[in-house]
What we know:
This protein has 20 helices and 13 strands. It has helices spanning 2-5, 22-26, 120-153, 159-193, 201-254, 257-262, 265-308, 310-357, 359-364, 368-421, 426-468, 528-535, 558-563, 579-584, 592-601, 605-610, 628-642, 658-675, 709-713, 719-745, and strands spanning 59-60, 69-72, 84-87, 489-496, 505-512, 517-522, 543-548, 551-552, 565-568, 646-650, 678-682, 694-699, 702-707. Strand 4 (489-496) and strand 5 (505-512) form a beta hairpin. Keywords: ATP-binding, Membrane, Nucleotide-binding, Translocase, Transmembrane, Transmembrane helix, Transport.
Amino acid sequence: MLSSGCVLGRNVLIAGRGSIGLSRHLGTAAARASSRIPGGSGPKLRFILPGAFLHGSHGLNSATGSAGFHTVSAVLAGNNSASKTASESVAKTESDNAQKLASTDTKTTTTTTPSEGNKSSKSSTTSSYLSEQQEPEEKKFHNTILRQLFKYLWPKDNLSAKVRVVIALSLLVGSKVLNVQVPFFFKDIIDNMNVDWTTQVGEVSTVVGAMVLGYGLARFGSVLFGELRNAIFATVAQKAIRQVATNTFEHLLKLDLGFHLSRQTGAMTRAIERGTKGISYVLTSMVFHIIPLTLEISIVSGILTWNYGFQFAAMAVGTMAAYSIFTIKTTSWRSQFRRDANRADNVAANVALDSLINYESVKYFNNEKFQVAKYDVALKDYEKSSIKIATSLAYLNSGQNFIFSSALTAIMYMACSGVADGSLSVGDLVLVNQLVFQLSVPLNFLGSVYRDLKQSLWDMEALFKLQDVNVTIKEPADARPYQYKGGEIRFENVTFGYHADRPILKNATFVIPSGQRVALVGSSGSGKSTILRLLFRFYDVQEGRILVDGQDIRNMTLESIRQSIAVVPQDTPLFNDTIRNNIHYGRLSATNEEVEEVAERAELGKLISQLPDGYETQVGERGLMISGGEKQRLAISRVLLKKSPIIFFDEATSALDTETEKALLQNINYNLKELRATSVFIAHRLKTVADTDKIIVLRNGTVAEEGKHQDLLQNPNSLYYNMWKAQEHHDHTEVEEGEKQTIESA
Length: 746
């Protein structure tokens, strides 16, 4: 009787395989899987059981240890009400970014050349030690993240979101209550069928029929409430994700130029991508996992205590405690492997992105094999960490399986003994069986939720650290808009350097009069482009001050001063969009007619008319589909459209041929007179600025001399005179060599 009444438990581990490769680093990978274990036929007793007792699946689908699917299936007489699937996203990794984002342990794992691959073992050991040292601070930071997320989950001024959360929680409670009712209906069905049917056919049929109907309605209601909960809460979760991502992106645009010059684009974009996915999981786990787990475990433990005594409840609670402790301890130990994999993943992402962005350079120097080897080293480091993740995951799953199987065996032995001595009915045996498996479901979810919650918090850590990077260029609380009074620019004793020990400008003092065309000339590194960056407040001066129309730019609103300055940079940045939209970017309120007008002024009209798609022609990523000269003309047309009172031209015609440059400069001068703008030309070719109103010559970060072109040439000892003569000689030599080659070829 005892042996025939016991349940056959079966544990199935579903193994999956993951892959790493270029797609992992250039896109978002995801894996989806599910498992369902069918029921079998059980032993026959004096009464009839319409199916098997229970077959349980208790395992995890593992790709590279990143994530998988944790499924527990309970099938009793065709009942798989306990079947649940927890989906986990793949390729969650943590990003180490520039400056403040870079943590100490990343310094030991950055891969730069293929020869560094043999350092991975030492790096792993070092990063493991550092992770232990940083654990208390990490927990504190993760708690801060959770508190911030709660604000998105329960927003102050959003009644609609609060109502949705309340409804979702109510549906959650209803779903769990109905789910717990299912085994009670099944118990009553079994007990009511264990009678003499020949004498009580009508009464038994009515009772059993009602129980079966209640059983079906409870199962359907539990699933329906759960799906409604998911649908209602989805709006709250997605709005939170959008808000966090938008806030992060807005913060990135507020950061100073120094941050963006030193950041790693690939790692940072991956951090944002993974962080937003982590938010989705954490928000969902709060409402759909953590609270349900606590509720379901409490209900099941209470039922076991009330109906069957302390022994059953103690066994259930003890199992829960052992399972939870083992899972948390093992997952914490495995976290070092996940961090190593994350760092290797970021390195590979940066190598891949950097290689593709610099595709032409790779080809020019025939370094394809070097780049592939460099990429392979990063993948090799990732492979080693992933193997450790997979093997440690097997240990985790085996331990979880052993704890649950041992507890299930002990509880079923106790229940079968109760049936044998008459203290429990067969229905009680079935009820205990199903309650235990309903406890196994939240236990299994507890393991997967804890793992994914930790991984999501790691992913979100980089995202929230991005938001913590200090904005160094700030406007004061009492900042005022710039008041245009002609556009005079005055530098007073300005000292500045990108590095403290290497100043670029040294006590520089000069004036750019309003409405005039002024040139800044000098050798490379003399500080010409730095002047533009300081005026635009990409950086703040370390000493001295900058005045525009007598107003200190540090006391102005950033928007007003930047709106008043237009720039044609030497390296023209273009969006991967149409010619029209790239020009339109100069002033988004401009009409199509205005866009086409400035294109004509910038000598672009003829080119655009020859293109099949005209203004709708795509320029490609960073404008690679058009020439350097065409990019510069497009940038000039964009600046003309902006109509700012102050305009900077930083080597704006360096990529143009002489004829086009001459025509374009004439158009620029005409437009500047029409706009009455203060214009500053940064130039190396002195001929392009010889007709300006004033020339400021810089040397080693100071103003060496200034004046008009003819006045500066009057002094044969001046720096400008020597520069002019040197360029004249160079141009004359080039002309002679060209004529000589023409004669020889003829």
